[in-house]
Amino acid sequence: MRESKGRSIIGFPSDYVALDIETTGLDPSVDEIIELAAIRVRDGVRADTFASLVKPRNTISGFITELTGITNDMVSGAPRVESILPQFCEFIGGDVVVGHNVNFDINFIYDNLMQCSRRVFGNDFIDLLRIARKTLPELENHRLDTICGHFAVDTTAHHRGMRDCDMANECFQHYREVVAQRFGSTDEFIRMFGHKVMARDMTAAKDHFNEEHPLFNQVCVFTGTLEGMERREAMQVVMNVGGRCSDQITKETNYLIVGSLEYSSNIRGNKSSKILKAEKYVLKGQDIKVISQSTFADLLNEQV
DNA sequence: TCTCCTCGAGATCT
DNA sequence: CTCGAGGAGA
Asked: Between A216 and which of A66, A86, A188, A242 could a Cys-Cys bridge form, CB atoms 3.0 to 4.6 Å apart?
């Protein structure tokens, strides 16, 4: 299904189409499009727009009217999807499509276009939700209105097509700046996206260390899932006290910090390969300390 | 060291 | 769906 769908990509082009649709529900196989909206951007500025209500075959539920403000009266004189969707797609052309959780919109467009025109919608797309999660991990959630709140973007008339389109597009501009600020540059962000954070890529946030700290110059390896903190954060803390991080047990390893292994697929409470490897090295006389997360926390807080 | 795989957890869209 | 963690194999 959806064989010729475009690919989800990460990027910050200056030419693209931002879009948003409203529907009668969440499921593309049973629900219908009731509004289409798009903004064509050229050289980073809004060049043209497209907006239209769409008349569905079934009536719009009270819940959806409450949510979007779109009533059955409003769509009674609107075009059917089979007549307006091809125009919409013509407006989009071959552009990269941008939107918040745009995969949702793409699926509705793909299925409807296939059904009424036997054509595929193969445009590549940039899902701003992915960029938001990577860029603003500290937010409590990554719903569009929450992100707009963070960037002080106006959310008046939220859940109408053109407004959501504008909101997402404004957020896109903000991501550019935040990404450049937090990752050095958009190019660096794109390069790192989707790659595991390797221990060797970590750098300390300062260059002066207390050489008496128990983790100073100690090589630390993590296994399992930590509680209340991501592995990346933990590695950062180690770096910041002058320690070093590695992804695998070697002759250089000093500490193995063990998180919870119960969520891991092929482990199921058993020992991970890193633990087994560490125990082998210990038998050969190497001094690897296998410690729990709480012991790790104690070491960090130790004042010398 | 690198790429590709599996699995479970956790969100977001209307 | 996307992501992180760990594993297998080259």
From this structure: A242
Backbone angles phi, psi at A35, to 5 degrees: -155, 140
Residue type, A201: D
Share of chain A above pLDDT 70, in %: 95
Query: pLDDT digits over A198-234, tens only?
Result: 777 777 777 788 888 888 888 888 887 777 677 777 8
Q: Is the CB of A133 under 7 A from strand C?
A: yes
**What domains sit in chain A, N to C, each tagged with a CATH number?**
16-190 (3.30.420.10), 199-301 (3.40.50.10190)
With beta carbons less than 8 A apart as the criterion, state whether A291 and A258 touch: yes
User: Is A195 among the catalytic positions?
Assistant: no
Per-residue pLDDT averaged across A143-166, rounded? Answer: 96
Q: Which residue has tokens 């699926």?
A: A107
**Strand B reaches within 7 A of the A158 CB:** no
